[in-house]
């Protein structure tokens, strides 16, 4: 993981450390949990839907709660890794905001089931794991925060309260409720439109 | 209700039509559902927590699902009525945006339990009722949309895509996840800061 320096809590499983089979299990389980709720879906059913069967499934997962935890952390870990990479490779504050914006909207569009599960079932996780999920969200926010501070240091951006940054990120995250990945406007276009909102909000 | 002209679907119960006892039941039940999930809370417990007991409780509610529906619609109906009133009483586009912004953040701050329940348990409602909740959200968005159109007609605002309006409203709604009503920044202040984001986004 490239985010070690940011992550204060235990790092969550990243897609990069996950086998293709496990990744498929996460996707299938996220789809089932999103459609019918965590408590409404049994391990047998996940075994059938993945084509693995219950026995082989247990070779890849240890419990349904582990699966829930990995679903709620894997996409966030990837998002953090991607954000970190944009932070390091793009130094222009405006272009960087545009790249972060696009990457975030595309990740949300690709992970609607995972986000639905995360928002709806977060309380089903143990306290410790819930804190780990929240910590990943803070790590992601820290990337935007550093990017905005950098833009301030360069005189491009103005200072904004942390609640405004939380609000701006909420604009993206809340979209999982209305975003239609097959809709007329694709995620990249929405990302560009949202980047414009952020840039207008932070421009000096 | 002052929102009849906007509401295309059946109007939901408004607080104005609700007795103080029923209002208390809604608040207590929302708190219990938010803390432990809809399925984790029994009618007996709601009866005890309200001090009414199971028998008297059933005098005020017909079922737990009815309660869930009223929790998810009552605060939205109030928000629509308040938004409609601001739309009618304030004609200056900038001042109106500031008033809508403040009213929305204050409503969110006052109804964190209701919003938690709404986002987490929406799938527990029947299809028809879920559509009614979604319809209330559209009605509320229509108020902002009319306010922005009016500002455009006056030359104060620029046209924005509907996804940007959805994003801007998401900035507010998503805050129920991080807002601390006892935090250093109160809801009115955050509403003012968010109004500034909206105004920067829409200013011609």
UniProtKB/TrEMBL annotation, chains A, B:
Keywords: DNA-binding, Repressor, Transcription, Transcription regulation. Residues 42-61 bind DNA. Residues 19-79 form the HTH tetR-type domain. The keyword Repressor applies. It comes from the Bacteria. InterPro entries: Homeodomain-like_sf, HTH-type_TetR-like_transc_reg, HTH_TetR, KstR2_TetR_C, Tet_transcr_reg_TetR-rel_C_sf. The keyword Transcription regulation applies. GO terms for molecular function: DNA-binding transcription factor activity; transcription cis-regulatory region binding. This is TetR family transcriptional regulator. It comes from Devosia pacifica.
